[in-house]
Amino acid sequence: MRLKMPCRPVQFQRICFRSIATQDGTERSGFTGSLLLDKQRYRKEIAHGVFHMEPSISQPLDPNLYFHQEQWIQEQELLKKRLVLKDDFSWKIHPVLPSNGESGGENILRYIGGVDLSFSKDDSSIACGALVVVDLDTLCVVYEDFDIVHLTMPYVPGFLAFRECPVLLGLLEKMKRAFHPFYPQLLMVDGNGILHPRGFGLASHLGVLSDLPSIGIGKNLHHVDGLTHEQVRRHLPKNTNKDGDAIPLTGKSGQTWGVAFRYNEQSSKPIFISVGHRISLETSIAIVRMCCKYRVPEPIRQADIRSKEYLQKKHGDIRIP
After folding, report:
1. Residue 96: inside a domain
2. What would the pLDDT profile of 201-249 be if each residue is shown by its tens digit?
3. In the predicted structure, residue 24 carries a pLDDT above the cut 90
4. Which domain holds residue 207?
């Protein structure tokens, strides 16, 4: 499903919701005010997809972002209370589905979503959010959708979710409202889960807000709890075993934050798997193994490839409001 989407602004200067125009010309109303004041209402608004934020006119962006970071930290801590770090789903994992694709009445894991944002080379504020769904049996893409947006907030380390979550949540909510049969049972996110300075990265943030089991796939290591690239390189074996290498990322505190995973010997750099939400680390590793053809698992790889292709194709149609 390829949709021609206008480039629209997504802003986080003021943590508020307002009425916004949708593609069909109608309006959806949200609420105005701090998300921290009413967490039940926040959860309700998020659940109904009212999370697109418009630029603030009355409150210019603080150059140091200090005030906003304080708010974001509070919000992360609030959402973190809902985080589940164990298997919390009804489906089962089958290594191979029957040749006829029938599950025999069992609820098995079949559809895995991958989300990513790609950015314009000419203007880094222009981004394309992508949601793809992969059939676990074939690793073929069975669904794709995109949203081109204008991001007016810069990237702030540790707060990636506040830049990217609204775009990705919008794509998920749109698919959910359409009752699409391929709605993902699990999300793989191009970003970290609990492998994060405050233990609540993009994969955890998105998992909690969408209420989906989620796995964080990091391409770079967060230096959390004393973890370093040198430690990872030192522990990766020279010869990769047939199931891939998973090296625990255990910090100075003794906590295991995730694993460094290398699928094969051709993968010179590992990826970093961490729990996002409603899934254990052991199950996360097993599912990533099932989804790998190359260094990065297919749901994330396809979201990355297709978002770049879509952005390049539609870049001439973009109009900045």
Report:
1. yes
2. 999 999 999 999 999 999 999 889 999 988 888 877 665 566 678 999 9
3. no
4. 84-317
22, pLDDT greater than 50: no
pLDDT per residue as tens digits for the range 74-85: 999 999 999 999
Encoding tokens for residue 36? 């921290």
Handedness of CA 155, 304, 193, 211 (dihedral sign): positive
DSSP single-letter state for residue 263: -
Q: Which residue has the tokens 């952005």?
A: 311
CATH code for the domain of 212: 3.30.2170.10
Confidence band of 142 (pLDDT split at 50, 70, 90): very high
Q: Write out the DSSP string of 29-53.
A: ----S-TTS-HHHHHHHHHTT----
Q: Cα separation of 226 and 83, whole Å? A: 23
Task: Tell me the two tokens of residue 107.
Answer: 């609820």
Residues in the chain: 321
- How many structural domains compose the chain? 1
Look at strands 214-218 and 186-190 and give their pairing.
Answer: parallel
* 166/163 Cα distance (integer angstroms): 7
Q: Which two tokens stand for residue 22?
A: 């949708």
Structure tokens at 179: 């009752």
